[in-house]
Write a structure and sequence with these properties.
about 150 residues, alpha+beta, 4 helices, 6 strands, about 25% strand, globular, N-acyltransferase activity, transferase, LRAT_dom, lipid metabolism, LRAT domain-containing protein
Length: about 150
């Protein structure tokens, strides 16, 4: 599978780099007829790909072939050391199957593809890429807030 090391197992988080700063995330679902699939939060159609203030109202969890989502990816189970992953077959897969096709509001800060992937795998929402953005922005805004200029 692509550029993945180690080989993904059902329930693993896959990271698909988009650019220098951001990546797209999904959950490796396993194979169907020999084709590897990933469950991921994505915009439903081309009209909603232009995000309004970082939000897209017409988003959903989709099940797509891994190669359709991206050829370059890596297994990124980033919270395994602090949060045990949930069992794929009894918890994660049923949660994915239940979410497929449902309306979900994508929000770059509060519910992006990384949030959705960690929610499936660990039962909690976390986005390390957004935390890095906050780490850069917070010091810039801290002083004006303290001085009550904002």
């Amino acid at each position: 599978l692509g550029f993945s090391h180690p080989k993904p197992f059902p329930g693993d988080i896959l990271e698909f780099p988009l650019n220098k700063y951001f990546s797209h995330f999904g959950i490796y679902y396993g194979e169907r007829d020999g084709v590897p699939y990933v469950a991921h939060l994505t915009c439903r159609d081309s009209e909603t790909k232009l995000l309004l203030f970082g939000r897209a109202l017409k988003s959903e969890v989709k099940l797509d072939p891994v190669e359709l989502v991206g050829r370059k990816y890596k297994v990124r189970n980033l919270l395994d050391e602090v949060h045990p992953p949930r069992d794929f077959y009894s918890l994660v897969k049923p949660a994915i199957d239940d979410m497929i096709g449902r309306d979900v509001t994508f929000d770059i800060l509060f519910h992006n593809s990384e949030h959705q992937a960690t929610l499936f795998r660990y039962g909690l929402k976390k986005s390390t890429q957004i935390e890095k953005v906050y780490a850069q922005i917070l010091p810039t805004w801290k002083k004006p807030f303290e001085k009550k200029k904002l």
